[in-house]
Amino acid sequence: MISMPTKKTEIQIETHEVWGIRQQPDSASVVCGDCQAGGLMIPVEKAAVVCQCSRRLIYRWIEKGALHFRELPDGAVLVCGVTLAAKLEQLEDATGALAR
Ligand SMILES: [Zn+2]
């Protein structure tokens, strides 16, 4: 009887692109000071990826006051994940209504 060598296959499922704000443990997580929920702040670049929209749109939301944001000393802008999620929901409701 021949014993088959057992091959160990590791399957890594990367979930970091999935909606749901998960910060890398090693990255400095900034908590939003403007909402009681203590939402984590994410970079505008990442917010644009999550929303599948342009950074320009994110900045427009910031200007409208729809998103909590914070500007870092190095010029990077972070947006609040909680307000971003709320804005996205509004957007999905609106596009859903248009599709019908
Ligand atoms: Zn906030």
Overall shape:
extended
% residues in beta strands: 5-15%
Largest sheet: 3 strands, antiparallel
Hetero groups bound? Answer: zinc ion
Mean pLDDT: 79
- The residue ranges in which pLDDT falls below 50 over 5 or more consecutive positions are 13-21, 23-27
Lateral strand order in the biggest sheet: 1-3-2
The H/E string reads: EHHEEH
Portion in helices: 25-40%
Rg from C-alpha positions? 19 Å
* Spatial gap, N to C terminus: 64 Å
Q: SSE layout and pairings?
A:
Layout lengths: L40 E3 H8 L3 H10 L4 E3 L5 E4 H19 L1
Zinc ion binds next to helix 3.
Commentary on this structure:
The chain is α+β, with helices and mostly antiparallel strands. The protein has a domain at 41-99. The chain is built from three helices and three strands; from the N terminus they run E-H-H-E-E-H. It is extended. The protein starts with 40 loop residues before the first strand and ends with a helix. The chain binds zinc ion (ZN). Residues 32, 34-35, 39, 68, 80, 82-83 line the site of zinc ion. Zinc ion (ZN) is lined by residues 32, 34-35, 39, 68, 80, 82-83.
Structure described in brief:
The chain has 100 residues and is of the alpha+beta class. Helices cover 37% and strands 10% of the residues.
